Amino acid sequence: VALNLKIIIGSTRETRSAEAVAPFVERVARAHGDFDVEVLDLRDWPLPLFQEHAGTILDISNPTYSEPIVKAWNDKIKEADAFIFVTPEYNYAIPGVLKNAIDNVFLSYGFRNKPVLPVAYSVGAVGGARAVLSLTSIALETEMHLLRMAVLIGNVGQAFEDGEPINPATRATLDVGLEDLAWWGSALKTARVNGQHLPGNARVQARLQPAAMR
Ligand SMILES: Cc1cc2nc3c(=O)[nH]c(=O)nc-3n(C[C@H](O)[C@H](O)[C@H](O)COP(=O)(O)O)c2cc1C
Hints:
The protein is of the alpha/beta class. It is built from seven helices and eight strands; from the N terminus they run βαβααβαβαββββαα. Strands 1, 2, 3, 4, 5 and 6 form a six-stranded parallel β-sheet that branches. It starts with a strand and ends in a 6-residue tail after the last helix. Flavin mononucleotide binds at residues 11, 13, 16-18, 88-92, 122-124, 156.
C-alpha cells in the first residue's frame, strides 16, 4: 500500500524561489513509487494567524476550530503518513507562514509519529541549514520524526537549469532522503496502527487527577 506523502510548500510570496525547487521535488517524489503524493501549497491554504482557544475548540475530541479552513487543514495533515517541507530560510528559521501552518495543527496531533524530510534552500551558501535547525525544536514538541537527512540547496537562484539541479548532490540527497522517508513512513505507520500512547501531557495530567476522576 502506498504511503500518503504531503509536500508542504512553505513560502507564499510572489516571485518565490520555491517555484524552482518544489516542482523538482514533486517530480522525483512521484517517480519514487512508494508514495501517493499531494502538494499542499500554503498559497492555497490561507490559514488565519493562530487564534484557537477553548471557545473555538469546544469539543477536544472533535474540535470545531475558529474557521472551517483550520478544521480542513487539521484533517488534511492527519491523512498523511509522511511529509516533505520545502522551505526557505528566513532570518535563520523557517518562514512565519510555515510555522503558523504547523501551529494551526492543534490538538489533532497530525504530525505525531510521522517522518519529515526537509528540503531547505536559500540565497546563502549554506542552503537553509539554519531553517532545518529551527525545525528541530518544533519537531520535539509536535513529535514529528525529523529525518537526519536534509536536502540543502544553497545559492538557490543559480541552483537549477531547465528544472534540474546543477549540483548532483542535490538529486542524490533527495533520493536517499526519500528512501529514509519510505522506511520511516512505513515503520511508523505500522507502529501507529498497532496502537500509540496518548500524548504525554495528557497522560501526566491524568495521573495528577484524584483517583475518582480517572
Ligand atoms: C524575510 C527574509 C529573511 C531571509 N533570511 C535569510 C537567511 O537568514 N539566510 C539566507 O541564506 N537567506 C535569507 N533570505 C534570503 C532567502 O534565502 C531568499 O530570499 C529565498 O529566495 C527565499 O525563498 P522564497 O523566494 O521561496 O521565499 C531571507 C529572505 C527573506 C525574505
